[in-house]
């Protein structure tokens, strides 16, 4: 991975969206910055199918995490209803 100069400190907000062209290293960068984060990859069938069938499962998952835990939802645009679940946290 090419080292990037990017500050993703998120002290003022609860959420960060990373936008960019396909295949430029967004996921690689985020996983390098937050190696201990809980990851949901909606390109993986098990994550996609589970949350597409019942988006409220994300809220259940998030409710058992510790305060301050980082959660990454890669490709969230595939299931827009998940944004409603995130809104509550």
Catalogue the unreliable spans.
Answer: none
Mean pLDDT: 87
Q: How would you spell out the order of helices and strands?
A: HEHHEH
Helix/strand/pairing category = alpha+beta
How many strands, what sense, and barrel or not for the largest sheet? Answer: 2 strands, parallel
Strand content: 5-15%
Radius of gyration: 13 Å
Distance from first to last alpha carbon: 32 Å
Question: Can you give me a brief rundown of this structure?
Answer:
This protein is α+β, with helices and mostly antiparallel strands and 89 residues long. Helix content is 35%, strand content 9%.
Descriptive account of the structure:
The structure is a single chain. 35% of the residues lie in helices and 9% in strands. The chain has a domain at 37-87. It is α+β, with helices and mostly antiparallel strands and 89 residues long. The chain has a two-stranded parallel ribbon.
Write the layout of secondary structure elements.
Elements: H1 26-33, E1 38-41, H2 45-53, H3 56-63, E2 71-74, H4 82-87
Parallel strand pairs: 1-2
